[in-house]
Amino acid sequence: MQRKLAVANWKMNGTIEKLQDIESLTKIHQQSQVGIVICPPATLIYQAVQITNNSNLQIGGQNCHYDTSGPYTGDISADMLNNLGARYVIIGHSERRNSYDEQNEDVYARATAAINCNLTVIVCVGETAKQKKQNITLDVVVTQLKECIPNIQDARQLVIAYEPVWAIGTGKIPTINQIHLVHSHMRKQLNKRFGSEIASQICLLYGGSVNPHNATDIFAIPDVDGALVGNSSLFSQDFSSIIVALESSKF
Ligand code: 13P
Asked: How far does residue 62's CA lie from ligand 1's centre (Å)?
């Protein structure tokens, strides 16, 4: 059975004081049976790793370059994240796809680099509002899975986050049935590609306006193994409630 995972994506939020939130989460959830990952801005990763050493929280980056080092001003490599003690990295978030025109092939190259540096890659997929209207959600997601995900040997190398673009930061979420449909379809695709032994253990997250009020219903959906949380993860009590909802969900 795949591990349940609650991932906080802080995006471009948080300065040094915000590290206190991580410290309190390590205390509150020290006995947690679910995986907890915080992806703070790169500027906080080193200290966040020090705080979470000897706890069951882990730290992740929000992006990485496809190359190990070189003339890429402003970029960070997977190797550098690993060197800091990060264990995860989010790749292909729709905000990166939109703002920096990252295409599926970029996502694939970055995800490959991350896996080669022993990071667990969290690959984001999801349809835009226009694609949803056109009724092509499943096609979009299948293509993204095909084009973004490198080969893996072990389910622990990969996490997939289904994040409908129109649900991010809007307070809107798909219906329970829609989420179920996409997640079970993703599992089927992964089965075809990696075989059931690996596919059944890949962690599939839902992301987009997850909050303490909707988390329990979302975690009750088959094939939803956790959440990638933006806004609500910036309030440690809210993120904590989401973790508790995941802990209480059926394994
Ligand atoms: P919100 O939870 O703010 O909708 O953001 C989701 C997200 O983008 C997580 O990566």
From this structure: 12
Catalytic residue among 29, 127, 163, 183: 163
Task: Map tokens 């997977």 to a residue.
Answer: 78
- For residue 40, CA distances in Å to 19, 32, 46 come to 9, 20, 10
- How far is residue 174 from each of residues 57, 116, 248, measured CA to CA in Å? 29, 34, 22
Four-CA torsion 61, 172, 210, 93, nearest 10 degrees: -10
How many Cα atoms are found within 13 Å in the side-chain-facing hemisphere of 34?
26
Is the pTM above the cut of 0.85? yes
List the one residue out of 123, 96, 88, 118 whose CA is nearest residue 108: 123
* 215-235 confidence digits (pLDDT tens): 999 999 999 999 999 999 999
**CA contacts within 13 A on the Cβ side of 148:** 27
Instruction: List the catalytic residue out of 29, 65, 93, 183.
Output: 93
Task: Return the best residue to mutate from 210, 213, 218, 238 for the ligand 1 pocket (most ligand atoms within 8 A of CB).
Answer: 210
Q: Of 138, 135, 130, which is closest to residue 98 (Cα–Cα)?
A: 130
Q: What is the pLDDT of residues 18-32, one digit of tens each?
A: 999 999 999 999 999
**130: three-class secondary structure by DSSP:** helix
Residues in the chain predicted with pLDDT less than 70, given as ranges, are: 1-2, 251
Tokens of 161: 């986050």
The residue among 240, 245, 151, 152 whose CA lies nearest residue 206 is: 245
